[in-house]
Structure to design on (264 residues):
């Protein structure tokens, strides 16, 4: 792996799943890692597991007061964040308008399609993925620009290259991250700050546990993934380490799919 010694990373949504895997890989590569999540217990468990180079910052990135407190606490603790990973996310599996069926429409295990998402549910998804990422960028990228070096990695989804029923709000939010990546990468390229997106395919996380654990879900996954397997979170972490390192300094504005060939 690339060395991230003497670098500080901040990973949102780091208490579990892919965010935790990325944060673990950063620690293993030598970085100091600020882990952010709404769940303080998960963060404390992570810090206890990896040791002294991780610092927990419980916060809800959808809340302006939490964001201000997070920014002040992190900058006071570490000075400058060199690497920002926008990973925090949520998912609502409901249609935009009710569909005239109660039968299966989305992935195995999806709920009834006859109940539409509410405005609050829509806002919750967009606020977490897009608004939260934007505010973290505003909080920590100025320091990167001042020092002439920095990395921003947005975590999207392979679903941006296809479509999936009952996840419109999620796909819209992830699509916005792709355009945010391209726009900010061009705006900051002259200042040594790169911006890239990782678009994972199917990995077993708490969000997708039901799908991965059911025989029906396993069969559905094997059928659609050419490699006939799902991803290992460590594989995603290794890519994040590379993008965060010096050897990736000429890569910016890109979306890299890690999906076993599903979007081919």
């Amino acid at each position: 792996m690339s060395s991230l010694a003497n670098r500080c990373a901040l990973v949102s949504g780091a208490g579990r799943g892919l965010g935790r895997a990325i944060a673990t890989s950063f620690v293993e590569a030598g970085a100091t890692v600020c882990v952010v999540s709404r769940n303080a217990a998960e963060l404390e468990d992570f810090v206890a597991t990896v040791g002294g180079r991780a610092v927990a910052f419980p916060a809800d990135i959808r809340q302006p007061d939490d964001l201000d407190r997070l920014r002040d606490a992190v900058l006071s603790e570490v000075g400058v964040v060199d690497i920002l990973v926008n990973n925090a996310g949520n998912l609502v599996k409901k249609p935009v308008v009710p569909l005239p069926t109660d039968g299966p429409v989305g992935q195995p295990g999806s709920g009834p399609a006859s109940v539409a998402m509410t405005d609050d549910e829509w806002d919750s998804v967009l606020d977490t993925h897009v608004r939260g990422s934007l505010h973290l960028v505003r909080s920590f990228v100025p320091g990167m620009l001042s020092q002439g070096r920095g990395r921003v990695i947005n975590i999207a989804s392979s679903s941006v290259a296809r479509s999936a029923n009952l996840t419109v709000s999620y796909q819209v939010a992830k699509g916005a991250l792709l355009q945010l990546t391209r726009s900010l990468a061009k705006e900051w390229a002259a200042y040594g700050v790169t911006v890239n997106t990782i678009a994972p395919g199917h990995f077993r996380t708490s969000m997708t546990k039901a799908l991965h654990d059911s025989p029906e879900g396993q069969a559905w996954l094997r059928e659609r993934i050419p490699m006939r397997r799902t991803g290992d979170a460590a594989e995603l972490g290794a890519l994040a380490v590379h993008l965060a390192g010096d050897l990736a300094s000429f890569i910016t504005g890109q979306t890299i799919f890690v999906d076993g060939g599903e979007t081919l």
About this structure: The first strand starts at residue 8 and ends at 12. The chain has a mean pLDDT of 93. Residues 8-95+119-205+232-258 form a domain with the Rossmann fold fold (CATH 3.40.50.720).
